[in-house]
Amino acid sequence: MKYVRSIAPIALIFCLALLVRIVYNNVVAHNYVLVGDAISYNALAINIIKEHCFCRYPSVPTVDRAPLWPAVIALIYSIVGQHNYFVRLFLCCVDSGTCVLLYLFARDLFRHRFGLVAGLLVAVYPQMYMYVDWLYSETLFIFLVFAFCYALFRFQRTSKRTWIVWSGVFIGLLSLSRPNGLFFFDLFVLWAVIVGWRKILPWRLIAQSTLAITVILCVFVAPWTIRNYILTQTFIPGATGDGTVLIGSYNDVSLYNHFVIGKWVNPRQADPILANRYKYAFFDGPRAQIARETAYKRAAEQWILRHISSLPTLFEYHLLRIWAPAPDEVYFPGDASSQIFVAMVNTFPLFIYPLAAFGLLLTWKRWRELLFIYFVILLMIVQSIVFYGNVRLISPIQPMLLLLAVGTVWSLTSKEPGTLLGSLSKHIGINRKATKKLEQSNISTSSE
């Protein structure tokens, strides 16, 4: 019976979240067409199956995409055929898993009822599930980031080495899902140093966990790094592409064009002459792709040096754009059913973002348990400011914002130690006792 009571909320949240995401896929994305990065991921997956090659074009290997998501698509295609609807159903399940993780995190941090609030809220939170109708990697990346955060949280609480193994697995998968996945290892090292310095965990345990996670990470990353080195004679742990990002972010179009200011633009718009020089890099192979990225990066650096005074303006637009309700790539049909989701997308952030901001303050006494969450939020925001303003770049922090928002509700409605209501109740109780003693003293004085 105890097992049923513990598993029932998990089943409820997962099933509700899955239902919402399937409905969303069938209503909003019933005529889904591959666009943007999805075209590349789809082509890579098909060539993995047909050519046994990580290639965007047959027999031409590529190093500009991380391998995990195309490999997952290829696995699904090999089982059910080349129908992207089944990939999107897989994303629905992954995102529902993130909802369960949020329930577990909030339950462990703020008690069961607040975990249930968090789980039910994230199940219908559109900023989470609006990515499941794409073939983009956002949904998988969100899950892996939050799973890594939860595994570290559980390790900090229990000191069980099982959670260190899971942490290593999740960060290994992160490193193969996005080029910036390895940044989370840097965050982990910083977290470990602070946790040891503040004596939250023993140094010996921290050293053992750091070594274990490093070894597991190397097991995941080493084969792909070796493959990339054989192809390019260059050390590339995940994927290249930083030059394309930089030149698309730092150019005259992104600075002066009112319609795209602060956004990333295609290199063909940013620098047509340079882009034309490398237009066949995808066909010419990995070394040509490395040369293209190096040239793009150099051009972006030169532009930055010539426009130092304009960078604050550009950074300001980057920061403002990441808080938009939805990324520009998300397309919502005009039918009445889809407009319900549009209304939800535009409404939820008006409540969640302010609550999360208050949560940063009201949950500060739990900073030891939320430290890594703080680091991830800071990393995602700084990364968006430095590169370009797009809601997709901060998508991994959405479950964390919900966690902080629920933390606000916990602090305002619970009388536990560390909550605002608890502090106020304690203060009022002290004042009442002091008043009662004063009244008793006055009565004694008057009777004398």
Describe what you observe in this structure.
The model has no long low-confidence stretch (mean pLDDT 90). The chain has a two-stranded antiparallel ribbon with strand order 1-2. It has helices spanning 2-27, 37-50, 68-80, 84-110, 112-123, 126-129, 138-158, 161-175, 183-197, 203-232, 242-249, 252-256, 267-270, 272-277, 281-284, 286-306, 311-321, 336-362, 367-386, 398-413, 420-447, and strands at residues 55-57, 60-61. The protein has two domains: 2-414, no CATH class; 415-448. The longest helix is centred in the middle third of the chain and has 30 residues, at 203-232. It starts with a helix and ends with a helix. Strand 1 (55-57) and strand 2 form a beta hairpin. The chain contains 21 helices and two strands.
Q: What is this structure, in a nutshell?
A:
With 448 residues, this protein is an all-alpha fold.
Can you write the helix and strand succession as a string?
A: HHEEHHHHHHHHHHHHHHHHHHH
Mean pLDDT: 90
The tally of strands reads: 2
The helix count comes to 21
Q: Main sheet?
A: 2 strands, antiparallel
Please mark out the parts with pLDDT under 50 across 5 or more consecutive residues, or reply none.
Answer: none
Gap from first CA to last CA: 64 Å
Q: What's the number of domains?
A: 2
Question: What structural class results from the helix and strand content?
Answer: mainly alpha
% residues in beta strands: under 5%
Strand order of the largest sheet: 1-2
Overall helicity: over 70%
Gyration radius from CA atoms, angstroms: 25 Å
Give the secondary structure arrangement, pairings included.
Elements: H1 2-27, H2 37-50, E1 55-57, E2 60-61, H3 68-80, H4 84-110, H5 112-123, H6 126-129, H7 138-158, H8 161-175, H9 183-197, H10 203-232, H11 242-249, H12 252-256, H13 267-270, H14 272-277, H15 281-284, H16 286-306, H17 311-321, H18 336-362, H19 367-386, H20 398-413, H21 420-447
Antiparallel strand pairs: 1-2
